[in-house]
């Protein structure tokens, strides 16, 4: 900084040389004002500390710093947004992993429960199979005793002759759904050979079988015997309006089926006075109606061959289960 010039002081005239009655001193207040004006005039000239070019450079530097600050703030905001997005994605992934783990645990628990249930069912099945084997063995023993009793008691033998029995056995061999018992002379027609479920109209493919049956019964070796035709149903109720119109109950269905067999045998040449019909509805099952397979076995028609002296009304029938 350039030193400020000190104003020169005029040499004072000795008070003795002054003219008498003249005081050349200015008032103090005037002198102070003039000094201030002089100092104010000298300062712009001597105190130009910061040149103008440095001031411009400073302003440019300040602008650049401001731009850098704005850019840094924008980058900071972008990084913060990216961080929030990454945090949200990480939270979603954590929630998805947690849900997957919970689902896996539920599946594991369900699998363990199913395995436990399967083990219990398998144990029950094993017990049922063992009981079935025992019952089958007992049934075989009872059947053997029954056959022995039939052989021992003459009245229990089949009234059919040997040749007629052989012809019925040959007929049963050609028709798998036709069952013939040579010891009792009872013929059984399975559920699929004669009728459709819920119907009493004879299947066309059953007509040849019944014709051959009538032919054997009309032969000389069997012409003196009578037959009883018995219809049976399962325990299902009659369903469908059209079926109910024809067969309101299982009583109607069982007897209508027996009647259909009788009329077909009559048309095939078997004398009607040698036949009788009966319907037992659902009340004479051969097995319990616990599933569809058993129900199919119970839907059947049986033909009992009777000796001439046996009355139809006095015939013996299967024992109710």
Keyphrases for this structure?
single chain, 321 residues, 60s Ribosomal Protein L30, Chain: A, 5-stranded mixed sheet, disordered C terminus, membrane, OmpA-like domain-containing protein
Q: Give the CATH superfamily of the largest domain.
A: OmpA-like domain
CATH class of the largest domain: Alpha Beta
| Percent range of helical residues | 40-55%
CATH topology of the largest domain: 60s Ribosomal Protein L30, Chain: A
Please name the CATH architecture of the largest domain: 2-Layer Sandwich
Please, what is the oligomeric state?
single chain
Q: Helix- and strand-based class? A: alpha+beta
**Strand order within the widest beta sheet:** 1-2-5-3-4
Compute the gyration radius: what is it? 63 Å
> Helical region count?
7
Distance between the termini: 135 Å
What's the shape? Answer: rod-shaped
Global mean pLDDT: 78
Secondary-structure element pattern, one letter each: HHHEEHEHHEHE
Number of domains: 2
Tell me about the biggest sheet?
5 strands, mixed
Organism: Alienimonas chondri
Pfam families: OmpA
Protein name: OmpA-like domain-containing protein
InterPro entries: Bact_OuterMem_StrucFunc (IPR050330), OmpA-like (IPR006665), OmpA-like_sf (IPR036737)
Structural commentary:
The model is unreliable at 4-10, 43-48, 146-156 and 313-320 (pLDDT under 50). The longest helix has 101 residues, at 52-152. A 5-stranded mixed beta sheet has the order 1-2-5-3-4. The N and C termini lie far apart (135 Å). It has helices at residues 28-46, 52-152, 162-174, 207-217, 241-246, 250-267, 292-298; strands at residues 178-181, 186-189, 226-232, 275-279, 300-306. It folds into 2 domains: 88-156; 158-314, OmpA-like domain (60s Ribosomal Protein L30, Chain: A), CATH 3.30.1330.60. Helix 3 packs antiparallel against helix 4 and helix 4 (207-217) crosses helix 6 (250-267). The chain contains 7 helices and 5 strands. It has 321 residues and is α+β, with helices and mostly antiparallel strands. The radius of gyration is 63 Å and the shape is rod-shaped.
């Amino acid at each position: 900084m350039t030193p400020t010039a000190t104003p020169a002081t005029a040499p004072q005239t000795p008070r003795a040389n002054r003219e008498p009655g003249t005081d050349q001193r200015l008032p103090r207040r005037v002198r102070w004002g003039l000094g201030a004006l002089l100092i104010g005039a000298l300062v712009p000239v001597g105190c130009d500390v910061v040149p103008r070019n440095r001031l411009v450079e400073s302003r440019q530097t300040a602008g650049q710093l401001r731009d850098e600050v704005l850019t840094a703030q924008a980058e900071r905001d972008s990084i913060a947004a990216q961080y929030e997005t990454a945090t949200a994605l990480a939270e979603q992934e954590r929630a998805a992993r947690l849900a997957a783990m919970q689902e896996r645990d539920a599946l594991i628990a369900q699998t363990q429960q199913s395995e436990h249930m399967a083990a219990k069912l398998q144990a029950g099945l094993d017990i049922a199979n063992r009981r079935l084997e025992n019952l089958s063995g007992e049934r075989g023993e009872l059947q053997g005793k029954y056959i022995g009793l039939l052989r021992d008691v003459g009245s229990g033998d089949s009234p059919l002759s040997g040749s007629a029995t052989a012809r019925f056995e040959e007929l049963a061999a050609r028709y798998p759904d036709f069952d013939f018992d040579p010891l009792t002379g009872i013929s059984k027609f399975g559920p699929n050979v004669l009728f459709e479920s819920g119907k009493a109209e004879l299947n066309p493919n059953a007509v040849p079988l019944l014709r051959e049956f009538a032919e054997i019964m009309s032969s000389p070796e069997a012409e003196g015997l009578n037959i009883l035709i018995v219809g049976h149903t399962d325990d299902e109720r009659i369903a469908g309006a059209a079926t109910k119109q024809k067969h309101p109950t299982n009583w109607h269905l069982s007897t209508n089926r027996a009647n259909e067999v009788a009329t077909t045998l009559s048309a095939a040449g078997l004398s009607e006075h040698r036949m009788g019909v009966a319907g037992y509805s659902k009340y004479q099952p051969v097995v319990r109606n616990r599933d569809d397979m058993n129900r199919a076995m119970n839907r059947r028609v049986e033909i009992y061959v009777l000796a001439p002296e046996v009355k139809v009304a006095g015939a013996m029938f299967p024992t109710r289960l």
